[in-house]
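Researcher: I'd like a structural prediction for the single chain below. Treat it as a standalone chain; there are no partners to consider.
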Amino acid sequence: LGFYKNRVLLNVNWFNSKSDNQIINYNLPSQTGFDQILRNFPGVVQNKGVEIQVDGSIIKRKHFEWSAGFNITVAKNKLVEFPGLEFSTYSSRYMIGRSLNSYIGYRSLGVDPQTGLYRFEDINKNGIIDYDGSDNQYLGTNDPVFYGGFQNTIRFKGIELDFLFEFKKQRGIDNIKNSGRLIGGIGNIPVQVLNRWTKPGEVAEYQRFSQDFTSPAYETAYQYSMSDAILTGASYIRLKNLSLSYDLDQQLIQRAGLSKCRLFVEAQNLFTMTNYPGADPENQSLVALSPLRTIAVGLKLTIK
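Model: Treating it as a single chain, here is the predicted structure.
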């Protein structure tokens, strides 16, 4: 759709697709020499969503122009069918009607103020947290709620400024809590765990320290890494690209035998606004390199 003599353009796309005969990893006994192989499964996955793009020429004068663009995408996927899922090794990974990127695990109840150990919801009420899936439940997904970008181009005589912001609303993994490492065991640990339980009645974020790998603390630390406690906000807004250029006056450069002379500064990943506790909300990793901040300065000459 075009408005105001096409100075504002609106583009809306809606999609809804289903795909079957899915290819996923099939677990094998280690005696075969391979942990898993790719195999076709009779699963049906649905992907649907909407994409909106708005572009506008806000100001258009002889020596000044300003144009902007905004896009946003809301997309969802879910497993529609998977015959025999409840009897397969994938019953703890996938759920009918849920996203393929679902978290299925324990519901964390925090640290017990009396024992100093992590607690979890006992669904089957048998007094223990089972590993057979009977205490597992749907915890959410790390699929983005929405994502998109906002771009601007401003021109004034020979000066041009371009910048692009990207944004994403999502949940992610807190890799500090996801390690499953026993607090107090051998290895480096982050300073966050200093907020630990030390005495009865104390309310703390992390359980008590222990170096005993046969203690209850070791088991609860492992269960903690499979609970919703590792989920955290990972939304962000990032200045992805920034470019500033200046075209020298035509009369000046023609005397030097040039048709165009441009000075420019270009930058990527200048800053990111986020509450994510890790290094980067995009890759959510303790070992992967975050997007690099790069700045380039240059001169572009075009000869007649």
